[in-house]
Amino acid sequence: SVLRKNKEALGWIIEDLKGITPAYCMHKIKMEDEYKPVVQPQRRLNPGMNEVVRKEINKLLADGMIYPISDSPWDGECALTTED
């Protein structure tokens, strides 16, 4: 199959994705003006998970995979899952 022949081109872990610039691949969600943000309370995480999330976010920031936006009223919940 094409995927098996070119598996080195795929990113299996975040470290595999270094070097991909946002100029090459960036996703955008276009919002319509009539939709406004809805404020919901932030969900609390237990201290252990909070530290895991903090480390992962710092890693993604350092790798350039995400970047902070301070002037947007839109925000997203953090959804945690386990790897099985």
- Oligomer state equals single chain
Biggest beta-sheet profile: none
Radius of gyration: 17 Å
Stretches where pLDDT is under 50 for at least 5 consecutive residues are: none
The geometry reads as extended
Write up what this structure looks like.
It is extended, with a radius of gyration of 17 Å. It contains two helices and no strands. The two termini are 26 Å apart. The chain has a domain at 7-32 and 43-68. It has helices spanning 2-5, 47-62. The model has no long low-confidence stretch (mean pLDDT 77). The longest helix is centred in the middle third of the chain and has 16 residues, at 47-62. By secondary structure, it is mostly helical. Helices cover 24% and strands 0% of the residues. It comes from Trifolium medium. This is Reverse transcriptase domain-containing protein. InterPro entries: DNA/RNA_pol_sf (IPR043502).
Helix-strand blueprint:
Elements: H1 2-5, H2 47-62
InterPro entries: DNA/RNA_pol_sf (IPR043502)
Organism: Trifolium medium
Protein name: Reverse transcriptase domain-containing protein
Which key features would you list for this structure?
84 residues, mainly alpha, extended, DNA/RNA_pol_sf
Task: Write a brief structural summary.
The chain is mainly alpha-helical and 84 residues long. The protein is 24% helix and 0% strand.
